[in-house]
Specification:
The protein is α+β, with helices and mostly antiparallel strands. It has helices spanning about 5-15, 20-25, 35-45, 55, 85-90, and strands spanning about 100-105, 110-115. Helix 1 packs across helix 3 (about 35-45). The longest helix has 11 residues, at about 35-45.
């Protein structure tokens, strides 16, 4: 991952590319191939001479990636997704089945385990 003057120069060379392509070109890609946007933007800010609190946040668990918000929305195709963070928190296992109980008067959805 480039830093400092090298980062600024490479980013300028790639400035006609998308933000993700610039980050990729500067080496900000994780082991899974995902673009590390937060690290890239933080490095750009530091390369421009601004101070960040990188060291102070390293041990802070709350700063680790996405956090479950217990919110979701209905997608354009009508699906309602309950993500991995929620099923993990409840200890649910793949293949576990549920009955869906709807309470129309309160717009409430209940998932009732079948096994």
């Amino acid at each position: 991952m480039l830093e400092g003057k090298e980062l600024l120069e490479k980013a300028k060379l790639l400035s006609k590319q998308s933000e993700d392509e610039i980050a990729r070109g500067c080496g900000y890609v994780g082991p899974s191939g995902r673009v590390l946007r937060k690290s890239f933007y933080r490095a750009l800010i530091e390369a421009k001479g601004y101070k960040t609190n990188r060291q102070g946040r390293a041990g802070n668990r709350a700063s680790r990636g996405r956090q479950a918000e217990f919110r979701t929305k209905v997608h354009g195709n009508g699906n309602l997704l309950i993500g991995h963070a929620y099923t993990k928190k409840l200890g649910l296992k793949p293949g576990q089945e549920f009955k869906i109980d709807l309470k129309k008067e309160s717009n409430t959805i209940y998932l009732i385990p079948l096994n």
